[in-house]
């Protein structure tokens, strides 16, 4: 990341590197957890990384930033609804329970 | 008022207004009919785009390519709504859905149509991303509407894969903006398709390379290509709300505008 952004201003370069690492840490957290809540924490960390990257990019249009923030908010609400439903239906938030059918068994 | 009758505005405004209307109306027979009417009107507006195209603005763009996709999407939306109107009465009879859920389903259906049309006509890479995210979220809500084990599992997996995918695409979008900013200046211009295309040669190639990886992986997840397995069809086509699955099989259209124009949705993807 630092290598390819040689011409950007220093703050944006550092910011982008940090943002990418936050994104990747979020992904790592998502793939290593079985608990749905921890997965969501990972997902939100990933989104945090994105917002960090967006703040580093100087002068992003307001309409874009607002709608990104809004859609992430909606995503969070949807996640909340689904967590409740999953807990209601499966009596657990362990994602091992959500392994009933997969593509190959369709 | 004249603005509303312009085909581009109509393609976006009809689904948006219909979503609000259908969310407010309780009677399911009426809403099913209204759903069909609204999708049909959207389809007509999309066809009207063939005959009169507005000049591109920083937000909306209609060209030869996406015109075809808009017509295709609205056509599938229309036929699916006809099918779902006949199918949904049966679901009520056997008690799998209640009228309340149905109201929600119709509102989400129109919202999904709105999001897909917005993704197709957007002339702004940021707005396009937001529209695709909105389409993902409405699809997730429609898939999970039955609240059975299978529906919840499918919705959850779709949500996690889809959202992570397009989260990466957002990172790619930001990188494209950063590459375009020194050339096109700060602000809206550096995110507008028509401006990006004219000056693409001057962008920093190294940054664009990285952006391409993220965009391909991100929108590729939604298209259903590449290393991220999207359990789209096997999971949803059979077990979930049929109406929603056949519409959202058309979601690839949105992503394909960014990645590639020739990748069809796989009929069966093995995980």
Task: Explain what the structure shows.
The complex is a heterodimer of chains A (about 110) and B (about 270). Chain A has about 110 residues and is an all-alpha fold. Helix content of chain A is about 70%, strand content about 0%. Chain A is built from 3 helices and no strands. In chain A, helix 1 (about 10-30) packs antiparallel against helix 2 (about 35-55). By secondary structure, chain B is mainly alpha-helical. Helix content of chain B is about 75%, strand content about 0%. Chain B has 12 helices and no strands. Chain B has helices at about 1-5, 5-25, 30-50, 65-95, 100-120, 125-145, 150-185, 195-200, 205-225, 230-240, 240-250, 250-260. The N and C termini of chain B lie far apart (about 50 Å). The model of chain B is unreliable at about 230-270 (pLDDT under 50). Classes of the chains: A mainly alpha (about 110), B mainly alpha (about 270). The interface between A and B is large, with 53 and 53 residues.
Feature tags:
heterodimer; A: 106 residues; mainly alpha; 69% helix; B: 271 residues; 73% helix; 0% strand; disordered C terminus
Write the layout of secondary structure elements.
The complex is a heterodimer of chains A (106) and B (271).
Chain A lengths: L9 H23 L3 H21 L5 H29 L16
Helix pairs in contact in A: 1-2, 2-3
Chain B lengths: L1 H4 L1 H18 L3 H21 L15 H30 L5 H23 L3 H19 L5 H36 L8 H7 L5 H19 L8 H8 L2 H7 L3 H7 L13
Q: Sheet bearing the most strands of chain B, described?
A: none
What shape does the CA trace of chain B take?
globular
**Succession of helices and strands of chain A:** HHH
The total strand number of chain A stands at 0
The structure class of chain B reads mainly alpha
Number of helical segments with 4 or more residues of chain B: 12
Average residue-wise pLDDT of chain B: 79
Query: Roughly how many Å apart are the termini of chain B?
Result: 50 Å
Radius of gyration of chain B: 19 Å
Taking all residues together, what is the mean pLDDT of chain A?
Answer: 84
- Put simply, the count of helices of chain A is 3
Portion in beta strands of chain A: under 5%
């Amino acid at each position: 990341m630092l290598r390819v952004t040689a011409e950007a201003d220093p703050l944006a370069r550092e910011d982008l590197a940090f943002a990418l690492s936050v994104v990747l840490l979020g992904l790592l957290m998502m793939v290593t957890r079985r608990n749905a809540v921890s997965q969501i924490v990972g997902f939100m960390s990933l989104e945090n990384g994105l917002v960090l990257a967006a703040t580093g990019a100087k002068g992003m249009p307001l309409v874009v930033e607002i709608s990104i923030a809004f859609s992430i908010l909606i995503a969070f609400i949807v996640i909340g609804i689904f967590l409740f439903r999953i807990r209601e239906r499966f009596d657990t938030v362990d994602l091992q329970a959500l392994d009933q059918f997969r593509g190959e068994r369709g | 008022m004249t603005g509303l009758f312009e085909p581009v505005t109509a393609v976006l405004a009809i689904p948006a207004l219909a979503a609000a209307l259908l969310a407010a109306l309780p009677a399911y027979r009426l809403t099913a009919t209204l759903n069909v009417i609204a999708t049909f009107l959207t389809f007509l507006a999309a066809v009207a785009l063939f005959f009169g195209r507005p000049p591109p603005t920083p937000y909306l763009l209609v060209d030869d390519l996406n015109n075809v996709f808009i017509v295709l999407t609205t056509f599938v939306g229309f036929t699916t709504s006809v099918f779902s109107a006949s199918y949904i009465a049966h679901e009520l009879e056997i008690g799998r859905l209640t009228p309340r859920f149905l109201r929600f389903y119709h509102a989400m259906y129109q919202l999904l149509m709105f999001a897909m049309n917005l993704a197709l006509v957007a002339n702004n890479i940021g707005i396009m991303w937001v529209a695709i995210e909105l389409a993902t979220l409405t699809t997730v809500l429609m898939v999970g509407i039955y609240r059975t084990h299978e529906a919840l599992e499918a919705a959850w997996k779709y949500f996690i894969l889809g959202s992570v995918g397009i989260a990466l695409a957002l990172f790619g979008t930001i990188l494209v903006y950063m590459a375009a900013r020194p050339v096109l200046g700060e602000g809206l211009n550096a995110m507008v398709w028509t401006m990006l295309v004219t000056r693409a040669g001057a962008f920093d190639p190294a940054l664009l390379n990285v952006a391409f990886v993220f965009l391909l992986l991100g929108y590729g997840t939604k298209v259903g290509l590449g290393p991220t397995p999207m359990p789209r069809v096997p999971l949803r086509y059979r077990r979930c709300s049929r109406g929603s699955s056949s519409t959202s099989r058309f979601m690839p259209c949105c992503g394909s505008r960014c990645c590639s124009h020739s990748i069809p949705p796989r009929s069966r993807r093995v995980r």
